[in-house]
């Protein structure tokens, strides 16, 4: 359900990579927030810091400086084990390349997150089936990726992200490998999920995708240069 609760909040986030004696400042003091049920787009040229930001938001990396609050919890203050649990339980990922296991069928791919959780087999099956139904692939649950179209594979990836009922879903160029018609279908699915209360952060270079976001942040050289409300 949409509300005023902040799911994501970053305060002066900085990320510095040390490459020998050379330091690269990938993020330079980012401040922004995403409320429950928000749909946020992140845009910017190559090298702007989009991927680094997504890695930090997804608990794949820690910021060098600053504070990242996820669901009100300070990520910089938790252990590596708890960081892994946060990543597995609270965040759903959708990638440009789908990242499906070719030997597994739709149901098995969607059920992968439950390998790292404590649900019973019955509950895991129920949740995976529910996620598959939400993306409209119930009739394809036993097909393998090679038997699916690009759009269907991305729907599987979205179902996998949804299955654990995460705090938010992070999507990195989710339409990058799709044709325009299929991209529209995926955008419509994201919009439907957001209307149902799913919190989404999408990195994209496509204005058509960004136009469906409530807020768009533009990154340049590791900084937010402006933000705008979508029409």
SSE order, one letter for each helix or strand: EEEHEEHEHHHEHEHEE
- Overall number of strands: 10
Give the strand order of the largest sheet, numbering strands 1, 2, ... along the chain.
Answer: 6-7-8-3-9-10
Which percent bin holds the helix content?
25-40%
Would you give an account of this structure?
With 231 residues, the protein is α/β, with parallel strands linked by helices. It has one domain: P-loop containing nucleotide triphosphate hydrolases (Rossmann fold), CATH 3.40.50.300. It has seven helices and ten strands. Strands 6-7-8-3-9-10 form a six-stranded mixed beta sheet, with helices on both faces. A four-stranded antiparallel beta sheet has the order 2-1-4-5, with helices on one face. Helix 6 links the parallel strand 7 and strand 8 (200-203). Helix 5 packs parallel to helix 6. The mean pLDDT is 91.
């Amino acid at each position: 359900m949409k509300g005023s609760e902040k799911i994501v909040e970053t305060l002066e986030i900085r990320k510095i990579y040390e490459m020998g004696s050379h330091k690269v400042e990938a993020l330079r003091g980012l401040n922004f927030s995403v409320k429950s049920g928000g749909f946020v787009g992140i845009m910017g040229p190559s090298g702007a810091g989009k991927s680094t930001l997504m890695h930090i938001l997804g608990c794949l990396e820690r910021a060098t400086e600053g504070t990242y609050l996820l669901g009100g919890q300070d990520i910089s203050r938790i252990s590596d084990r708890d960081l892994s649990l946060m990543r597995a339980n609270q965040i759903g990922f959708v990638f440009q390349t789908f990242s499906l296991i070719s030997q597994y069928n739709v149901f098995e791919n969607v059920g992968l997150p439950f390998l790292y959780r404590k649900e019973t087999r019955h509950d895991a099956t129920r949740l995976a089936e529910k996620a598959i139904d939400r993306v409209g692939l119930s009739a394809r649950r036993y097909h393998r990726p090679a038997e699916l179209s690009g759009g269907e594979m991305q729907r599987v990836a979205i179902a996998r992200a949804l299955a654990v009922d995460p705090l938010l879903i992070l999507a990195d160029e989710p339409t990058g490998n799709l044709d325009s018609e299929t991209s529209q279908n995926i955008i419509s699915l994201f919009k439907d999920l957001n209307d149902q209360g799913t919190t989404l952060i999408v990195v994209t270079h496509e204005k058509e995708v960004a136009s469906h976001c409530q807020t768009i942040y533009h990154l340049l050289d590791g900084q937010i240069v402006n933000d705008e409300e979508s029409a």
